[in-house]
Amino acid sequence: MSEHTLPIEVDSLEITVVVDNETDGMSSTPEGLVLGQFDRLFRDHRHPCSSKGADCHEFRFPDACCAAHGLSLLITAKSGGTVRQVLFDTGPYEEIFQKNARNLKVDFSTINTVVLSHWHIDHSGGLLSVARECAKANNSVNIDLHPDRPDGRGTQLGQDEYVAWTADPSMEALEGFGAKLTKSSQIHTICEDMFLVSGEIPRLTSYELGVPSHVRWYEEAKTWKSDPLIMDERFLAVNVKGKGIILFTGCSHAGVINACHEAKRIFGPSVPLYMVIGGFHLAGRQVEQRIQNTVQDMAAFNPTFLAPGHCTGWRAKMALERAFPERLVPSAVGNIFKVSSDN
C-alpha cells in the first residue's frame, strides 16, 4: 500500500460482473466494450450435443450467473508485463458469490487484493467465502477495509421500530483463513500503484445527503443511532492509458456526483472520466428526488460510458439513458467489460 501516490496508467482493464442486481445477457452493447453473459456462455460452456449434429453444443441455464441484491466486480489490470487482480466487494451472501464465481471460473490463486467499499452486508456477504477459497488456493489474499467496522447496521421504520441487517463478517474470522487485512481511511494505491482506493469521500453537493433512515447499532450502549452519511464508504479507481478514469462505486452513499468530484480532484483536470460503474443509490422513495440533479450534474463530467448497477434503480437508469444516449451499458451479472488503450 502506498499513500499519497497517484496510480500509474494501465494498458488495459477487464471487469467481470460477479454479482449485481440485474441479469441481462441479451441487450446490445457497444462493440468491443462488453461481452454479454449469453455470448460468454456460448463460448465457454460447450456441452456435447452430438445427437443434433457434430457441430452442435448445448446451452444449459445452470451455467448462467444469477442476480442478487449486491455487488461484486473482478477487475484485472495490465501494465506492460505486469498483471494484477482486484475483487471489489463480494455480494450479499456466500452461496450466490460461490455459484457465480464457479460459473465464471474465477481463479482464486490470482486475486491480489479484495477491496471492500463499505461495511454493508450486500457488499461484504461473500468475504468469508473469498478468504476460504483463496486459502484453499494457497493465496494469503490481502483484504483492504475501512477500519471503522460497525457493531451493526439497519433501517429505522418508525420512531421505535428498527430492522437489523445481517452482521458483516468479523475481522477475526477473515484473519482465521489467513487473509492479511489492510485497514485504511486514507487515499492510497494498491497492486504496484495500478489501483487507487479513496479515503472518506467529501460531501460537496447540497442534495446527496446519504440515507435518512439508516441507523447504526452500538453494542456497548445497546442503542441505535442515526447514521445517514455512512462515512466509511470508499471508491476504487483506475487510469487506463488513452481513456481516463474508470470509477468503481459500491453504493454511492456519499453521492455519485461527490465521488466523481473527488476522483477528478485526485487525478487532476487533465484526466477525463471515462466510465462510472457500480451502484449510484438512486432507488427508493428517500433518494429518488435526487435523480434530476444527479443527471444534470453528471453532464459536467462528460463520461464516455456509464454502467449504473446494483442500487441505482430503473427510474435513474431511464433518466440517465435519456440524458446520455448510447452511453449507458448494462452492469449485469456475468457480463465482461474490456477497456484498452488499443480500442
From TrEMBL:
InterPro entries: DHPS-like_MBL-fold, Metallo-B-lactamas, Metallo-beta-lactamase_dom, RibonucZ/Hydroxyglut_hydro. GO terms for molecular function: transferase activity. SUPFAM superfamilies: Metallo-hydrolase/oxidoreductase (SSF56281). It comes from the Eukaryota. Pfam families: Lactamase_B. Residues 86-156 form the Metallo-beta-lactamase domain. This is Metallo-beta-lactamase superfamily protein. It comes from Basidiobolus meristosporus CBS 931.73. The lineage of its organism: Eukaryota, Fungi, Fungi incertae sedis, Zoopagomycota, Entomophthoromycotina.
